[in-house]
Amino acid sequence: MIYADTAAEIEKRRKAFLRKWKLKCRAVADSLEEAGDRLFSFTRLDLSQWKSARTTNAIERLGNPPRG
């Protein structure tokens, strides 16, 4: 999903993923639905910034002291 080129394509892939995983593993689909639009908030940025935004793990940095 996150490697799609447009927000519309992400939504299309998201819906297909949910259809598939609701049947195979409800917990996986529920987790994606719970994350909601927050998971794809990078799509509100300019396309040139998508890669940087989606690969920056802010949560991981919370538990680690700054380097330097």
UniProtKB/TrEMBL annotation:
The keyword Electron transport does not apply. Signal peptide: none annotated. GO terms for biological process: DNA transposition. Keywords: DNA recombination, DNA-binding, Transposition. The keyword DNA-binding applies. InterPro entries: Transposase_mutator. One of its GO terms (molecular function) is DNA binding. Belongs to the transposase mutator family. Required for the transposition of the insertion element. This is Mutator family transposase. It comes from Paracoccus versutus.
